C-alpha cells in the first residue's frame, strides 16, 4: 500500500453561504483552490503564489489565518495516494477569475457533494458544521 501524501495549501473563499471551488482542465471534480508548495516555501508563501496563479488574486498576507487540515484519497490516483490540504481564510482585492490550469470556478455548498473530490467533501462538511455554508 502506497502511503504517499500530496502536501497542498488551499484558500477558503465564502460568498452567499457558498464556497469557491475550482476544476482543472481535463478533470470532472471540483476542489479547493490552491496547490503544492515549492521547496522552502511557507504555507503563506505557497498559498499566495498558487492563488495568484489559479485565480489572479493577490492575498493580504497579514489577513491569512488557518481554518483546518483535511486528508483523504487523491482524485484520480488508484494507488492509495492521499492529499493533505491545509486550508486558510484570507482577504484579497479583486474577483476570483480562473487562470492557468483552472477550467472553471463554481460557488458550491453541501448540496453539490457529487461534483467534488473526496477531500473537498470533508472541507464542505466542516464548513456546514461551522455554519459557514448551506
Could you walk me through the main structural features you see in this protein, from its secondary elements to its overall organization?
- 19% of the residues lie in helices and 35% in strands.
- The chain has 134 residues and is an alpha+beta fold.
- It has one domain (5-130): Nucleoside Triphosphate Pyrophosphohydrolase (Alpha-Beta Complex), CATH 3.90.79.
- The strands form three sheets. Strands 4-1-7-6 form a four-stranded mixed β-sheet. Strands 2-3-9 form a three-stranded antiparallel β-sheet, with no helix packed on it. Strands 5-8 form a two-stranded antiparallel sheet.
- The model has no long low-confidence stretch (mean pLDDT 93).
Properties at a glance:
134 residues; alpha+beta; Nucleoside Triphosphate Pyrophosphohydrolase; 4-stranded mixed β-sheet; 9 strands
Amino acid at each position: 500500500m502506497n502511503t504517499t501524501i500530496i502536501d497542498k495549501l488551499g484558500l477558503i473563499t465564502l460568498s452567499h453561504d457558498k464556497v469557491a471551488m475550482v476544476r482543472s482542465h481535463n478533470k470532472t471534480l471540483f476542489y479547493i483552490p490552491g496547490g503544492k508548495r515549492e521547496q522552502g516555501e511557507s504555507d503563506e508563501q505557497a498559498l499566495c503564489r498558487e492563488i495568484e496563479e489559479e485565480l489572479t488574486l493577490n492575498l493580504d498576507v497579514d489577513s491569512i489565518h488557518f481554518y483546518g487540515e483535511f486528508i483523504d484519497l487523491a482524485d484520480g490516483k488508484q494507488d492509495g495516494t492521499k492529499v493533505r490540504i491545509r486550508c486558510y481564510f484570507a482577504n484579497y482585492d479583486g474577483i476570483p477569475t480562473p487562470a492557468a490550469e483552472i477550467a472553471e470556478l463554481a460557488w458550491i455548498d453541501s448540496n453539490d457533494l457529487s461534483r467534488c473530490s473526496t477531500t473537498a467533501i470533508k472541507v464542505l462538511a466542516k464548513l456546514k458544521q461551522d455554519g459557514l455554508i448551506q
